[in-house]
Amino acid sequence: MARVLYPGSFDPVTHGHLDIISRAAALFDTVVIGVYDAPPKHLLFTTDERTGMVEQAVKHLPNVEVKPYVGLTVEFARKVGAQALVRGLRMSSDFEREFEMAMMNKNLAPDIELVSLMASLEYQFLSSSLVKEVFSLGGYIDNLVPKHVSAAMKKKLRVVKEVGSLEKRSAQETLREREKLINESARESARKKG
Q1: Does residue 186 form part of some domain?
Q2: Rounded average pLDDT per 10-residue block, the chain, 194 residues
Q3: Which of 9, 24, 91, 190 gets the most CB atoms within 10 Å of its CB?
């Protein structure tokens, strides 16, 4: 029974990810989607939020499981009983990074194979980072992510803007208070001299 792991941060899950997931689900008995808990990059969504969005996006695929994880990917692959890692490849820039990771994983776990699936033509340009960047600048992303992901991103952006507004207001209030203290101190000094 072929069981594979498709790891990633999925921040957020895109149609490109879902393309790889559905194709892997057609090739293997079980596909475990590993949602990496702490990647070395800025995350928009929490691990629980990312896991939930992926679960909702793949609920129509009976042989796909979604699990969060932390630590080495190959150790997680062993933990879930995966014989191989599945990775999606876009342009040549992906190949170099994926090749480095594949060689390191092979060094760490020679028993775990790597299966690379070429991204479909319409998703060659698509990445979570690019989706977040375009979205943060007000661009249209509804054709790049599932509807529930787009809705979650819109909600998250509203919260981020509100928090930013509060932080900005708080910073402005702090500056006003500081300016007030400086002015009072200057007046007091002037009174003492006069």
Answers
A1: no
A2: 94 96 97 89 89 98 98 96 94 79 90 93 90 89 95 83 58 66 71 70
A3: 24
Q: How far is CA 58 from the centre of its chain?
A: 17
Q: Which residue has the tokens 């002015």?
A: 183
The domain tally of the chain equals 1
**Closest CA relative to residue 7, chosen from 70, 55, 100, 95:** 70
What predicted TM-score, i.e. pTM, was given to this entire model?
A: 0.79
Domain assignment present for 124: yes
Tell me how far the alpha carbon of residue 145 is from its chain's centroid. Answer: 13
Residues that are catalytic: 17, 41, 90, 128
Q: How far is CA 53 from the centre of its chain?
A: 11
Alpha-carbon distances, residue 151 vs 38, 106, 146, 147, 156 (angstroms): 23, 39, 9, 6, 9
Block residue for tokens 């208070």: 177
